[in-house]
């Protein structure tokens, strides 16, 4: 018994010394992984820009990587990515925020417990299923009313991506609104404000940083979506603002190039990394801006 009592404190002291080291190593894995990814993107992107002028890449409106006289203008891909993301957010933004307002401010506990899991089921559907849904159902449905819409277009995947993002925006926004202290609601109601006024003048401003974060995550999800746009938007590298036409996004181009048509060491192979680096920088800048805006509103409220 005495030996067991002596061993107990020794084991505890050893665990106290080991756990911080173990936790540090686990935390370092994500940092090292990020550094490795950025290093790979940088080295391969630099190799690409040794072959293709950087100005031509970022200002060119023609992308023909497999032609006899290849051209590597990334603007068609950026254009397709932005348009599909804007369409998605026009769908997901209003519906998501209104759903969050209903769940947070108007729904009873019983209704909230029923609706929130049902809403989150949308987030569990594989994106390839969304892609085939956009291609086989949404596009034919749109063409019933607008025959000029092409069989592959950017409108259909944009709409379906919006539906896919709704649970993310609704859930995170609802969590932010629910965290607003009830004392703020009760104080506004005591001053004669209506339920709607409390929602839009008290709750939403107080939860604005969390709402902005949910929108940023939604936009990032739309920008990084691959399977839906690959299946439903086609592979035409058109630089156009006509949402009824086929376009290609940056992620869809990466899928196309990594499919085996580009031999390792070729210019088109390195263009994959240049596009991936552009996507990385694009998302990074957007997230940094969102953090600045979110912090600013948090300080104000």
State the gist of this model:
The protein has 301 residues and is an all-alpha fold.
Description:
With 301 residues, the chain is mainly α. Helix content is 77%, strand content 1%. It has helices at residues 2-51, 54-59, 75-106, 109-120, 127-145, 155-178, 182-190, 195-206, 208-224, 227-232, 250-261, 267-300, and strands at 63-64, 71-72. It has a two-stranded antiparallel ribbon with strand order 1-2. Strand 1 (63-64) and strand 2 (71-72) form a beta hairpin. Helix 5 crosses helix 6 (155-178), helix 6 (155-178) packs antiparallel against helix 9 and helix 9 (208-224) runs antiparallel to helix 12. The longest helix has 50 residues, at 2-51. The radius of gyration is 25 Å and the shape is globular. The mean pLDDT is 84.
Write the layout of secondary structure elements.
Layout: H1 2-51, H2 54-59, E1 63-64, E2 71-72, H3 75-106, H4 109-120, H5 127-145, H6 155-178, H7 182-190, H8 195-206, H9 208-224, H10 227-232, H11 250-261, H12 267-300
Antiparallel strand pairs: 1-2
Radius of gyration: 25 Å
Number of helices: 12
Can you summarize the main beta sheet? 2 strands, antiparallel
Major sheet strand order: 1-2
Oligomeric state of this protein:
single chain
Proportion in β-strands: under 5%
Helix residue percentage: over 70%
Class based on secondary structure composition and strand pairing: mainly alpha
| Arithmetic mean of pLDDT | 84
Shape: globular
Q: How do the SSEs run, as a string of H and E?
A: HHEEHHHHHHHHHH
- Uncertain ranges: none
Count every beta strand, where a strand is a DSSP E run of 2 or more residues.
Answer: 2
Distance between the termini: 59 Å
